[in-house]
Each structure stands twice: as C-alpha cells, then as structure tokens.
Amino acid sequence: MAWPNKCESDTANFLADCFNKHQRDETKTYVILNNNIPVGLLSFNHIDKSNKTAYIGYWLDSKAQGKGIITQAIQALTHYYAIKNLLNVLSLNVLSLI
Predict the structure, then answer these.
(1) Beta strands, E only, the chain
(2) 22 φ, ψ to 5°?
(3) 70 and 60 in contact (C-beta within 8 Å)?
(4) What counts of helices (H) and strands (E) characterise the chain?
(5) pLDDT tens digits, residue range 19-38?
(6) DSSP 3-state helix, strand, coil percentages of the chain (rounded to 5)?
(7) Which uninterrupted H or E stretch holds 51?
(8) How far apart are CA 72 and CA 76, in angstroms?
C-alpha cells in the first residue's frame, strides 16, 4: 500500500490510482475516519479472487494511534467481507515507522 503524500498533485494521483485499482479488483482502499475526520487508510492488496485471499495494509496518523482504531477498522471490514463471502484468508503485514 502506498503511503499518503503531502503534495496536492501527488495526493490526487494516489487517489486516482486507488480508484482505478479498486475498479479492477486489484486492491480495495478505504479511508479510516475518527469523529468524521480522516486519520488513515485501510486496504486489501494483492487480491486473489479465485482463492478469496488478500493482504491487509494500513496507514494511521501517529496522533490516532493507540486508540484501537485500526483494530476496529480491520474487524469491521473483515466482518463485512466474510458476510459477503468475498474473502477467506487474509495476511496482515505491518510496517512501523518511528
């Protein structure tokens, strides 16, 4: 999963790329909101539709960390995909930036 950029044109390109990959079922990227404020991204990457598998990636603003936001977001999204029988196996890769 790409990391958010600070430049407006980079952000526009990133969002367009997310949209295109979403439409092609290559990735599914979602904005994480906390009190209606965007604080991060959660995505399913490397989607394998035939095996119903994907990798989970996320980015969360440092100010929002430690509040259970990622846990809640992953639980909600995986629950939705499980109910819809869209995915069977998920792999979580975590990159921590200090």
Answers:
(1) 28-34, 37-48, 53-60, 89-92
(2) -65, -45
(3) yes
(4) 2, 4
(5) 999 899 888 999 999 999 99
(6) 35, 30, 35
(7) none
(8) 6
Structure confidence by residue, pLDDT tens digits, 75-91: 898 888 888 877 765 55
**How is residue 58 written in tokens?**
């996320």
DSSP state of 88: S
3-state secondary structure of 25: coil
**18-22-53 Cα angle (round to 5):** 115
Indicate the helix (H) or strand (E) that contains 80: helix 69-83
pLDDT band at 68, cuts 50/70/90? very high
Q: How many CB atoms lie within 10 A of CB 55?
A: 17
pTM (two decimals): 0.74
